[in-house]
Write a structure and sequence with these properties.
The protein has a single domain, classed as 3-Layer(aba) Sandwich (Rossmann fold), CATH 3.40.50.1820. The chain is 35% helix and 19% strand. The chain has 6 helices and 8 strands; from the N terminus they run βββαβααβαββαβα. It has an 8-stranded mixed beta sheet, sandwiched between helices. β5, α4 and β6 form a beta-alpha-beta unit. α1 crosses α6. The two termini are 25 Å apart.
């Protein structure tokens, strides 16, 4: 269902999981569709939205970089205010979308946070950390990360001093989109299914 540029999947009632995209792909990419369909299939209500730059890309077909940080933050705040109701919200998303969600989670008083492929640092620039606000995050959070993610590996993340509210779940041999190598014996679908299962358990524990 499309409404106000939102995509809604799953049954109504209970906690609503609000997700958005990463820097390069829209809210209805194959990857986002698979995650959303998986969660809806587990009985969760999922709402997806796009940042303004991605909406403009959809309208005119021109690729452009993400909006300025203040626009991204304001968009999350607006979406949370629009969707806030009797049920609590769990917010998050893919890469950049999850990172921006993590920056407003405490401020907006959401029930939980889910980040899929958190960009702890740019690839090949491990010294440029994006973790300052994660040291004292109070919102219950789940970060799902591939063990080969160039934006943050297990050894790197172990030294970041993340807040106790944050739970890390590592997906075997996954890259930034959870895709493993053929030689690992794993498949992307297995890692996506595992991620969906972990998110479902996390959300249900908040109810």
């Amino acid at each position: 269902m499309r409404d106000m540029n939102l995509l809604v999947d799953g049954p109504g009632g209970g906690i609503v999981v609000v997700l958005t995209h990463g820097a390069g792909a829209p809210m209805d990419s194959d990857w986002m569709n698979d995650i959303s369909a998986g969660l809806a299939g587990r009985g969760l209500r999922v709402v997806r939205f796009e940042f303004p730059y991605m909406q403009r890309r959809r309208e005119d077909g021109k690729r452009r970089g993400p909006d300025r940080p203040h626009v991204l933050l304001a968009t999350w705040r607006k979406v949370i205010a629009t969707l806030a109701g009797p049920g609590r919200l769990v917010i998050g998303g893919k890469s950049m979308g999850g990172r921006i969600a993590s920056m407003v989670a405490d401020e907006c008083g959401v029930g939980g946070l889910v980040c899929m492929g958190y960009p702890f640092h740019p690839p090949r620039a491990p010294g440029k950390l994006r973790t300052a606000h994660l040291h004292d995050l109070a919102t219950p959070a789940l970060i799902l990360q591939g063990t080969r993610d160039p934006f943050g590996t297990p050894d790197e993340v172990a030294g970041y001093g993340l807040a106790p509210a944050i739970c890390m779940h590592w997906l075997e041999d996954g890259d930034h989109s959870f895709k493993p190598r053929v030689k690992s014996g794993r498949t992307l679908q297995q890692n996506v299914d595992e991620a969906v299962g972990e998110i479902t358990r996390f959300v249900e524990a908040l109810a």
